[in-house]
Design brief:
alpha/beta; 11 helices; elongated
Length: about 375
């Protein structure tokens, strides 16, 4: 366990064995022959890129990042293939080639430029096809032609073909149709090229793994589920939460009925109350949007309502029902304490956002402690 200093005011505890267990569960769901691409972009969803990559060396066969900077950080700790899932800036392409990373391309023009930069070597690419996400990838109608043309480029090796599912956790009918369209496109392209086994295929993100595991193809891109959060509540029991976000009580004060709490005086005490000031705020990862939306914190094993607006460095909570609370006590913002638990998904729902944003919003000021 990474050492926690007594002066640490806010920290995220990362359970690496829970992370590995979630990876093994992912593998079981799609089968042993499917490769696991662990998505570690955005500092591994706030969990710490380097530490997560090290922990998953034996579970993942590939790692996925968003850009060159993240790819370089991952390469420092793993020899595994690294797929850059986002489009490359022109200024990044040469370093992607020399670094041996797998670039994701959407067009023949990008592939030609990568081929030129590769000179006497080669570059591996993941060819993305847009079947409904709308943010990158070749159009469905032109994808087969681009795939055929890629074979003529001297320095490009087609590592994989992929698409992305925008509604795998929300719209079963649309996603089923999308997967069927992609399969037809893939069959047509392979029939035309005659080299059906020359590249891998990946489609499923975490929601897809949980809802559409029969469409796993050769690789699955697991992100959120590795960190112990399910995009769909009905699958949460399969996963172990990896992160707990904790802070300390800084002050305990008595306030009178009618007293206001925090900026804007959006909370007025309906009675005399005991209020704990927590030594964490939105700079540490407590969403400001959770203000006055029935958010809670665990103190002394009890749920304590958050009061008023979350501020940058401090947040207030009602501890009237926790008479033993004292400055320095642990307060759990995400995680378990006693018999109570607050999941990141609950925080997201209260804050009107998504679990992904809650995780990635945990600031660098919150120390990461690895168990």
């Amino acid at each position: 366990m990474t050492k926690l200093l007594p002066t640490t005011r806010c920290w995220a505890e990362i359970d690496l064995e829970a992370l590995r267990q979630n990876a093994r569960m992912t593998q079981e769901r799609v089968g042993a022959t499917v490769k696991l691409l662990a998505v570690v972009k955005a500092n591994a969803y706030g969990h710490g890129l380097a530490e997560v990559v090290r922990a998953l060396q034996d579970e993942a066969q590939l790692f996925g990042v968003a850009n060159l900077e993240e790819a370089l950080e991952a390469r420092a700790v793993t020899p595994h293939p690294i797929v850059i899932l986002g489009p490359a800036l022109p200024s990044e392409r040469r370093a992607i080639v020399t670094g041996g990373f797998i670039a994701t391309i959407s067009s023949l023009a990008e592939a030609r430029e990568f081929s030129r930069l590769a000179a006497d070597s080669f570059v591996s690419v993941n060819f993305a096809i847009d079947t409904g996400m709308g943010r990158m990838g070749a159009e469905e109608t032109s994808a087969a032609a681009v795939l055929g043309a890629l074979a003529d480029l001297p320095n490009v090796r087609l590592h994989s073909v992929s698409t992305h599912l925008p509604s795998a956790d929300e719209d079963v009918i649309y996603t089923t149709g999308q997967l069927a369209r992609f399969e037809r496109l893939l069959q047509d392209a392979r029939a035309g090229s005659g080299n059906a086994a020359s590249y891998l295929v990946h489609v499923l993100p975490s929601a897809g793994v949980l809802n559409f595991s029969k469409s796993a193809y050769d690789i699955v891109r697991a992100g959120l589920m590795l960190y112990g959060a399910s995009p769909n509540p009905q699958f949460q029991h399969l996963l172990r939460p990896v992160m707990a976000l904790k802070t300390r009580v800084a002050l305990v004060r008595e306030i009178a009925a009618g007293a206001s709490v925090s900026y804007g005086r959006t909370f007025l005490a309906p009675r005399a109350m005991r209020v704990a000031t927590l030594s964490a705020g939105y700079a540490d990862g407590i969403p400001r949007s959770i203000s006055n939306r029935e958010g809670a914190v665990l103190i002394g094993g009890r749920r304590c309502p958050l009061l008023g607006r979350v501020t940058m460095d401090l947040t207030m909570a009602d501890v009237s029902e926790v008479p033993e609370v004292a400055p320095g006590d642990e307060a759990v913002l995400i995680g378990r304490q006693g018999d109570e638990e607050i999941l990141a998904a609950e925080v997201a729902e209260r804050a009107g956002t998504i679990t992904w944003e809650v995780f990635t919003g945990i600031g660098s000021r919150a120390a990461r402690v690895y168990l």
